[in-house]
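thread: overnight batch results

M.L. [08:02]
morning all. the overnight job finished for the chain we discussed friday. pasting input first so we're all looking at the same thing
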Amino acid sequence: MVEARAGATYQVEPDFAARQSILWAIAWLVGGVTVTLVVQVLLLKPDVLGVLPFLQYGRLRGVAETTIVFGWLGTVGFAALYALLPRVAEVQLHNEVLGSATTLTWSVILTGGILAVALGLNQGRLLGELPAGADLGMLLMLIFVLYNAGVTAVRRRERTLYVSAWYLLAAALLAPIVFVVGNLPAFSGITDSIVSGFYLNGIEMLWLLPVSLAIAYYVVPVETGNPLHSSSLSRAGFWSLVFAGGWAGQRFFIKGPGPDYLESIAVGMTAVLLVPVLSAATNLLATGRTRWGLVAQSFGLRFAVTAIGLLIAWIVLVVLGTIPSISRFVGLTAWQAGVRHLALFGVFSSFGFAFIYHAYPLLVGRDWYSRSAAAFHFWATEIGVVTGTVLLMATGVGEAALRIGGGTVGPPDVSVVLRLLTAASFAVVVVAQFVLAYNTFRTSRAGPFVAGVSARGAAVGSSS
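M.L. [08:03]
and the structure it wrote out:
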């Protein structure tokens, strides 16, 4: 690690925005997983919270999805951009105050929007439930993030834009485009379902996935100390994702009311998405080469490697789910919920954890307060998420079999047992996130100082 920005004078210390964003992201994570657990309990016992409207499943599910995607994953994406882009550009973030204020305002607006959803002000779209005022405010914040990232890239000292910077800048550019298209109130009927498909797919493929790959392309070379294996593979992966990522939206509505040609395009482009995922996985795994033994010491690397494996599993399941014969069988069942569960809590969250475990000690100048707590967080999160995913998909297969057979299962209903086990597995995940929050809080105050890293966390590393 080297001091790439020593000797300069700043009104605000480096990494101020990144540190604040990480703390906000963890707060949203804790809140999001807690509400998600409540939602899973409501599936088993709908009246457990009484008859108050804002405590019912329909509203709390929208709150849970919005909190996880925009609160946790969106905010940790801001933090990754604020921390990693300056390092690969070898220049401080253009405006630390703007970055921190953007995250704070994003969180305030999102909180107001979530309260509105809980009170019944819902636009009726998955991840588009927030009222129009909140949408406008969040769009403005995304534009501020893009501006901060763009100016930072223009002012860079390192003239080469590394792979991680490509993905970060692409995510910053595409996120507001996807958001504004998905929240326009100008569509209705079949057109609205097509736009909703583009929106849901765009959030995953054009925003969260580029941020995730940016984190992986930074953490793996830095933690292993090896240069990137292949620039050609990274270029192929990047451009194939940019090309195909926006065309797969109709995969959510196979055999739905949309035009057949859109379904055909979605099936084909979803298959093309294997290229960026598999090329990135191959490139990153080859980058580590003989240094993968470091996962025992580096939690950032451990989460990154796990996230790569889960990413491969997820994209394969997504591709399989677009095959018409399979879609007819598992469509509109808990199978789809299992695939989404894997994406949000397994793939994208694991990349977020890889970033936090790598970056936070550098940002605060202290190592993790408890490595035992970090190890518990890793194992409890990954085992809980994988178990929950398998249980949800098994529930979906059972539901599909019953639907085709036209029968029912006598008591105890197998689907109820599977959902009970799913809720139990996710309870373990929830406990793990509270442990992460505690460990982060204690690290900033009582963690051992990191040798060679300033207290303000200005240390940076080279990235490929």
